[in-house]
Amino acid sequence: MEKQYYIIELQLDYQVKYLIWFLDEVDGLVTDPATEELRLQNFNKKEDLLEFTQKAGIAIEEEVSAKYDLDLLNDWLKNPTGLIDCQDFLNTWNLFTDVTTTLGIEFNGNKNEEARNLVYDKLFFGNNFPAITPEGKEYIPQWTKKEIAILADIMNEGVAILRKNLQ
Do 139 and 133 meet the contact criterion of CB atoms below 8 Å apart? Predict the structure, then answer.
């Protein structure tokens, strides 16, 4: 399978950044070839990203395929509650996994631990994917304080890792 490339739009600290995500045996993000340590290649304008991909010979889908509003997540992190959009949180968690895998960084969201797995599973099943959810049924997770705290810790860690590696 040949790598497929997509544009991600990310809002963090009230700034919009564009990144290149790829689908492969192991999904990841394109890193900046101009830095000694691994950093995420990112752009302030979509046009600059498209110019980069053209010069690099990367065939990319030109429409933004995913948007992440981490400012909204940061607002939730100031006062974590059980009001959790399973789709947004699962997508963001998966983004953090791809970022940390790309950069070779340890991430608590990737650890195989019972409490962590339970939180991830609640997000996953809370998406009510048609292939998994019986017709006419809907799963709405009930969150404990401990689970909310675990989710908040993982999201805080992911945001910090992303923020550090966009500079």
Answer: yes
